[in-house]
Amino acid sequence: MWLKNCNFARLFCGIKDSEKRRKKNMETFEQLCQQRRSIRKYTAQPIEKEKLDYILRCALMSPSGKRLNPWEFYVLTHEETLRRLSGCRTYGSGMFDTAMAAIVVALDASLTDTWQSDGAIAAQDILLAAADRGLGACWCQVYQREGAEELVRSLANIPDNLNVLCVISLGYKDEERRPYDPDKLPYQKVHWC
Ligand SMILES: Cc1cc2nc3c(=O)[nH]c(=O)nc-3n(C[C@H](O)[C@H](O)[C@H](O)COP(=O)(O)O)c2cc1C
Q1: In this predicted model, what pLDDT tens digit does every residue of 107-159 receive, in sequence order?
Q2: What does DSSP assign to residue 90?
Q3: 61 to 1, 7, 55, 65: CA distances (angstroms)
Q4: Per-residue pLDDT reduced to its tens digit, 53-102
Q5: How far is the centre of ligand 1, averaged over its atoms, from the C-alpha of 120 (Å)?
Q6: Which residue ranges does the chain devote to CATH 3.40.109.10?
Q7: How far apart (Å, rounded) are the C-alpha atoms in residues 55 and 49?
Q8: Which residues is 105 bridged to in the sheet?
Q9: Do 83 and 96 form a contact (C-beta atoms < 8 A)?
Q10: Does the CB atom of residue 92 touch ligand 1 within 6 A?
Q11: Ligand 1 mean position to 92 CA, how many Å?
C-alpha cells in the first residue's frame, strides 16, 4: 500500500513537474505562438472537461465583424463519432484516428459577409487555447472539401443554414513538433512602409 502511494506520489509529482516546465516555456504570448504546432497524433488520455470549457470560453470571446457572432461550436467526444470523422476527407483528416475530442466551427453566412474571417479567428483562438492548456490540436479544413461538409453535418447534427468551416481535433500530444525558431521566420514577408 505504502509502495503504491509512493508510486502514485512520484507519478503525480512527475506530472506536476512537466506541467511546471511546460508553463515556464510558455510564459509569454510569443512563446505560446512558438510552441503551437499542428499535432495530429494523440494519446488515449481523456481531456478534462475544465480544459474543454476553457477552450470554448476563449472561442466565445473571439472577435467578429460588428460583434454578430455568426459562429456555432459543436463539441464531439464520442469515440465512434471521432473515428468516423477521420473519413471525412481522403487526405488531411487522419488526426481523428486518435483525437479525444473535436470542435466543429460552423457559421451562419446569412448574418454577415465576414463569416469566414470570424470563423477563422475563432478557430485560431481554439488552437492557441488548446496549446495554452498543454493540448495538441489541428485544423481540418471542411468548407469546400468534397463530401466533408455533408459527413460532418450529419455526425454533429448541424442544420442546413450553417456552413461548416473546419473541425479542430484535440488531445494530449503523442508526437513532438519543434517550436518555431524566431531567428528562422520568413521576415521577407514583412514590409515596412
Ligand atoms: C486554413 C487551414 C486549413 C488547414 N487544413 C488542414 C487539413 O485539412 N488537414 C491538416 O492535417 N492540416 C490542416 N491545416 C494545418 C496546416 O497544415 C498547418 O497549420 C501548417 O502546415 C503549419 O504547421 P503548424 O500548424 O505546425 O505551424 C490547416 C491549417 C489552416 C490554417
Answers
A1: 999 999 999 999 999 999 999 999 999 999 999 999 999 999 999 999 999 99
A2: S
A3: 47, 41, 10, 13
A4: 999 999 999 999 999 999 999 999 999 999 999 999 999 999 999 999 99
A5: 12
A6: 36-175
A7: 10
A8: 73, 166
A9: yes
A10: yes
A11: 9
pLDDT digits (tens, 9 = 90+) for 9-47: 555 555 566 677 666 677 899 999 999 999 999 999 999
Local structure of 171: helix, strand or coil: strand
CATH class assigned to 36-175: alpha beta
CA of 37 to the centre of ligand 1 (A): 9
Rounded-to-integer distance, Cα 80 and Cα 21, Å: 34
List alpha helices for 25-114, DSSP H: 29-35, 49-60, 79-85
H or E segment to which residue 137 belongs: strand 136-141
Q: Is the CB of 37 under 6 A from ligand 1?
A: yes
* pTM metric for this prediction: 0.91
